[in-house]
Inverse folding.
């Protein structure tokens, strides 16, 4: 994996962890995410106007961006349902199963060639991402998430991992065929549109106006952070196989752990230590693979 691609994806992971922290600090998370994407749309429009980066839109680029956006919005919806309805130590690891599917899709549909060292790196990162929220590392704890396979929250978590893996394949094809900025711009517009349609449901009536109670600094700051996260990841995605890029971005989990440790005073036990070692070892192997 090229060093520039690695650095771009690691930077994206930092930004990803930051905007997730902002979401956690918000009152109404669904509305806040919508505002965040709306701000990112406006910011990217200003950038496109200033730097003359408006994309050349084709039917194919619209289909790819719309398909990727649909997958990512559905991923957030399924993940949110799973986390609300189920035990986090069960649903969170299952939502990370995208890393199992992405290399398969990358090899089958994109003809990516993975080295043995790179495959070992993917396996280590996947193991670390899976284990980071478990209650223990014994056989019973490791297989516990699959013991409730018919539970709706478990099905939703598995579905989230699957639809994300499909979305990132559309993403990879899009950034390879078009400019990273242009495709990301169209992608963000579609995601904002789909989220806006979701907010038309009766349960969200009046909540957009109530969200004015949010800190304006939090809302304003979230836009540039998510733009930085989206753009850096997709520029990195142009330079690296998607089979490597998606696992490496899981470094955001470690950044989230550090944020929780320093600011939220969350514990850092042996499970998180083991997961950290596995993820960092996996990133190192992918870099040299």
């Amino acid at each position: 994996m090229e060093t520039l691609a690695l650095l771009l994806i690691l930077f994206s992971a930092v930004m990803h962890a930051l905007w997730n922290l902002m979401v956690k600090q918000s009152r109404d998370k669904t509305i806040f995410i919508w505002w965040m994407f709306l701000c990112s749309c406006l910011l990217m429009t200003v950038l496109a106007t200033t730097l003359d980066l408006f994309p050349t839109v084709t039917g194919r680029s619209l289909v790819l961006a719309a398909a990727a956006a649909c997958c990512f919005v559905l991923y957030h919806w399924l993940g949110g349902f799973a986390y609300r309805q189920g035990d986090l130590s069960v649903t969170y690891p299952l939502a990370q199963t995208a890393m199992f599917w992405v290399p398969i899709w990358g090899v089958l549909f994109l003809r990516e060639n993975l080295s043995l060292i790179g495959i070992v790196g993917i396996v280590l990162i996947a193991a670390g991402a899976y284990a980071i929220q478990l209650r223990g590392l014994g056989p019973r704890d490791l297989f516990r998430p699959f013991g409730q396979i018919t539970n709706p929250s478990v099905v939703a978590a598995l579905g989230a991992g699957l639809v994300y893996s499909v979305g990132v394949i559309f993403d990879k094809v899009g950034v390879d065929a078009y400019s990273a900025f242009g495709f990301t711009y169209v992608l963000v517009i579609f995601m904002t549109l789909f989220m806006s349609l979701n907010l038309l449901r009766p349960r969200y009536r009046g909540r957009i106006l109530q969200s004015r109670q949010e800190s304006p600094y939090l809302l304003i700051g979230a836009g540039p952070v998510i733009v930085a996260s989206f753009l850096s990841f997709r520029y990195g995605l142009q330079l690296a196989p998607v089979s490597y890029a998606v696992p490496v971005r899981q470094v955001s989990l470690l950044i989230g752990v550090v944020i929780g440790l320093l600011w939220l005073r969350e514990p850092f036990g042996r499970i998180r230590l083991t997961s950290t070692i596995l993820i960092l070892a996996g990133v190192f192997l992918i870099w040299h693979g």
